[in-house]
Amino acid sequence: HILASLWYVIGDFGKAIGEQNWIDVGSFDQESVGYRYVTSLHWSLTQFTPASMDVQPHNTTERTFAVMVLVFGLVLFSSFVSSITNSMTQLRSLSDNQSKQFWLLRRYLSQRQISKQLTFRVLRYAEYACKEQQDLVDESRVWILNLLSDKLRGELSYEVSFSCLMQHPLFDHASTIACATMHELSRTGALNLQSLAKGDVLFHAGSRSTQMHIVDCGVLRYTKIGHYENSDTEVGTGDWLAEPALWTHWLHLGQIYAGSESKVVTIE
Q1: Are 245 and 201 in contact (CB under 8 A)?
Q2: Which distant-in-sequence residues (6+ apart) come within 8 Å of 253 by Cβ?
Q3: Do residues 22 and 54 lie in contact, with contact meaning Cβ atoms separated by under 8 Å?
Q4: Predicted TM-score of the model (pTM)
Q5: I need a surface site. Which of 68, 143, 193, 223 has the fewest CB within 10 A?
């Protein structure tokens, strides 16, 4: 738009001082203002593409402006192509490195005669972890985070890792009236984010419980061990387990394992 407007102003200026200009040569002065603007816009677009049109510069000012636009377009287009090339090279390099790592992992598991079931679980979780790493920006890449104050960094880390605590009424209320205390709990290690592969057991029946668990993402399956039959319950995102462990001595009455790749927040 800016280039089109300048091109028209230059042509109109040449017409005002009596020089030959693109408006008079093309008889555009007989057309509407809208048509003249679209023609100027068309000309400006052709300077950045291989396309052509019948509008050409007809005086020194117009030709100088056209040359400047061409140089600007050349630099801009070169930068654009260069950035795309660099991005494609980086993606190809990452893909090659990842493929090599998976090849090495499969060779490692094969050479050590790991069972097919465990090999499948390892490869499945590795693929899940790699995909998650590609989808999310890793904190280590954002070096500017190191410039944040300790308090601000703590608040950010708390919301990134432990936002699922807001699903529980107690911790939701505590975050409202005593957010500094909740941030301190995450800093001192009382709150932890644990990753689980499909099939990983979080706890067994009969084991002593010292932690409460809140599911951040994924699906867990809880099996209560009874005298006559076992009951299987699905535990999803936002659900919590073993809350009495925070207030009293507690033994787990069942076992729970990951039904899919999951993340669980543990509260000591």
Answers
A1: no
A2: 205, 224, 225
A3: no
A4: 0.60
A5: 143
Q: What is the DSSP string of 127-194?
A: HHHHHHHHHS--GGG-GGGGGS-HHHHHHHHHHHHHGGGGGSHHHHHHHHH-HHHHHHHHHHTSEEEE
- pLDDT per residue as tens, the chain (268 positions): 888 888 888 888 887 888 888 888 878 877 888 888 888 888 888 887 777 778 888 888 888 888 888 888 888 888 888 888 887 877 777 677 788 888 888 889 988 899 999 999 999 998 888 888 877 887 878 888 888 888 888 888 888 888 888 888 988 888 888 888 888 888 888 899 999 999 999 998 889 988 999 999 999 999 887 655 556 789 999 999 989 988 888 888 888 999 999 999 999 8
The owner of tokens 């529980």 is 168
Give me the amino acid identity at 114. I
| CB half-sphere exposure, 235, CA atoms < 13 A | 24
- DSSP-derived secondary structure for 203-221: E-TTPEE--EEEEEES-EE
